[in-house]
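Chapter summary example: a protein plus flavin mononucleotide.
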Amino acid sequence: MLIIVGSRRDGNSLKLAKKIKSAFDNIRLHTEIIVPGNQKIHICTGCMDCDRDGICGFTDDMKSNIEKIKNEKDILFITPTRWNILSGDLKIFMDRLNPLFSTRGLKGKNMIAVSIGAKSDDLYSTEAALTSLISFAEASGMNVILDKKFNNCLNSDDILSQQTEIDNFINELKNKINC
Ligand SMILES: Cc1cc2nc3c(=O)[nH]c(=O)nc-3n(C[C@H](O)[C@H](O)[C@H](O)COP(=O)(O)O)c2cc1C
């Protein structure tokens, strides 16, 4: 499973990713965390050349990211909620996945969608951010097999006080990906 983390700080998203990775390491299931914000990734210019031949002219970290995505069935996106939508780092990453569109390279892959935000659940902010991840899944033909919101996380380690929710989510995730 690939875990794509939409925040570049050592915050709630990365801490959750590390907990998931550790749980899966314990059952010898390979996971890898990618933090696009800490990589070298050019912003898509919209040239559309990749629609023709599936190849992007930029040489940067997206080359290896795309190879990893091709080889994985399960891809977990964790986004911090920013202005009710996904983070800019994740959007830049998603745009650069367009070379996979012409070959239907994302179709049929499993998406696990997670949003994390400072606001409470009743304000629908993390719900809206989750919807932006799910919209990407719909556009790319991925199947959302599990989604989850973590609310009330403002400071960088607030999620650590939600250990029961994290454990429950990890157990659900294990069930969904049949391990
Ligand atoms: C630019 C910006 C916009 C934000 N907008 C929202 C928002 O609309 N709703 C919300 O619940 N939290 C919002 N937050 C708070 C973050 O979602 C929250 O701090 C989250 O835990 C950050 O994840 P991280 O620790 O992984 O970076 C915003 C934070 C930033 C920096």
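Key point: The CA atoms of residues 10 and 156 lie 7 Å apart.
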